[in-house]
Amino acid sequence: MDPSRRKLIVVSNRGSVSYSRGSDGARVERRGQGGLVTALRPLVLHHDVTWIASAMSDEDRVVAAESGGAPVEETGRDGARYRLRLVAHQPDDFHRYYNVFANPTLWFVQHHLWNLVEEPSFDRRLHEGWDSYRAVNESFAQAVVEQLADEPDAAVWFHDYHLYVAPRLVRRAHPDALLSHFVHIPWPGPDYWTVLPEPMRRAVHDGLLANDVVGFHTKRWRSNFLRSVERTVRAEVDFESGTVDYEGRRTLVTAHPISVDAGEFAELAISERVLAQERELAELRREHLIVRVDRTDPSKNIVRGFLAFELYLERYPDAVGRVTLLALLDPSRQDIPQYAVYLQEIERTVRGINERFGTGDWQPIVLEIRDDFPRSVAAYKQYDVLLVNAIFDGMNLVAKEAPLVNERDGVLVLSENVGACQELGEWSLVVNPFDVVGQCEAIRAALELPARERRARAEAIRRRVREHDIEAWIAAQLADLDRVSAVPS
């Protein structure tokens, strides 16, 4: 057996596979959606993986019932085998866990999205959401505990904000288990965490410190976490080494920026599905094309980006009819009122700008709201400017994916509050996401950059992403586990 292979239990809300029924009644498997699932796919090629996730669809729950909660064998990319264990939660609990507490409460806290004059108000509904969040985390923890009974030498790798309190529950049952948790979204400083009632924020920090390793994308989020645990739970923090001593254990806190599979995007770029979409998009092009690819999430700052483009057309009228903004937006979390309202605001803003500046044969903003990844990759290939202006973002993989396949030496306009800015800011035009005028002028500057500078910037970004790819990110996580397993807690 290859000594480098490890036994790993990966725990995330969304799984690697989702099940449904086709029109003929047969069971259909669909690859799980989202950046996390895509990022972890290479893991199963090299390691013995059991993946624990929520049973989200009706057919997921049927699969979970058929297996009696045990893992089922699955096949990943390139034929790699792994085990998938689906956890069926109580439907009401799952709704409140996901749609009331994890999203939007934790998501809004961690992306600084609350208008604190008006919200949140922690009424009965939000407290019930917290109760359900803990109940779902208990279901996950129980599944992990049972899996560790079968695989006692496996390391457990939790992911993201859905599972903050589960590690503490696992730690109580398995004091010597090797636990790690990667947080894929920003971590605010300690002041903003005071939005959450004290028992909730204490439980969040306490749960994470039950891990041997806690990982973030950037030093910025890591630093915020260290300051936050110091104040919230009075942990003893060594800021230089990134270690936290709390309740008799030591936790290593690290920063490793997630990346993408460069080879996969090279293949996608020449696939027939992408080429067909590219032929369609060619009809939209005038002289210049600005592209943004996002979910319709308030954190993505889509409306301010449109207002910046509107100001650009107003200030530089020669651009009218010559520059098009293509917005490919995936409708996100429409069961949550804030998201539904934001999508309406997006559509209303686009209508106003197109009515103001559009002509009979040209619309300044082409808005497409659907999940169509091949079309997004086709747009990646053709942009002159890529706009990534999120309010806050843990990383933002669009900023890494698109330059890999772009064929026009496109310029990246990048928010300073996006994790990717730590790596790519040197070769981007960095903007304040709240400054509409600054974003307007960045668009102008990007379109006017000399060809030689555009190429130098684009090539530097591509080189950085290829050298620090998803395989390197996974290797860094496993190296962290080696560090802590070699040192007694």
In short, what is this structure?
The protein has 489 residues and is α/β, with parallel strands linked by helices. It has helices at 35-40, 43-46, 58-66, 91-110, 124-150, 166-173, 190-193, 198-208, 219-232, 262-269, 272-281, 302-315, 337-357, 373-382, 398-405, 421-424, 436-448, 451-467, 470-485; strands at residues 7-11, 17-21, 27-31, 48-54, 72-75, 81-87, 155-159, 179-182, 213-216, 236-238, 243-246, 249-255, 288-295, 323-330, 365-369, 385-388, 411-415, 429-431. Strand 11 (243-246) and strand 12 form a beta hairpin.
Name a few traits of the molecule.
Rossmann fold; 19% strand; 2 domains; globular; 489 residues; alpha/beta; 19 helices
Can you put this structure into words, describing what you see?
This protein has 489 residues and is of the alpha/beta class. The protein has helices spanning 35-40, 43-46, 58-66, 91-110, 124-150, 166-173, 190-193, 198-208, 219-232, 262-269, 272-281, 302-315, 337-357, 373-382, 398-405, 421-424, 436-448, 451-467, 470-485, and strands at 7-11, 17-21, 27-31, 48-54, 72-75, 81-87, 155-159, 179-182, 213-216, 236-238, 243-246, 249-255, 288-295, 323-330, 365-369, 385-388, 411-415, 429-431. It has 2 domains: 7-258 and 471-485, Rossmann fold; 262-468, Rossmann fold (3-Layer(aba) Sandwich), CATH 3.40.50. The strands form 3 sheets. It has a 10-stranded mixed β-sheet with strand order 5-6-4-1-7-8-9-12-11-10, sandwiched between helices. Helix 15 (398-405) crosses helix 18. The protein is globular and about 65 Å long. It starts with 6 loop residues before the first strand and ends with a helix.
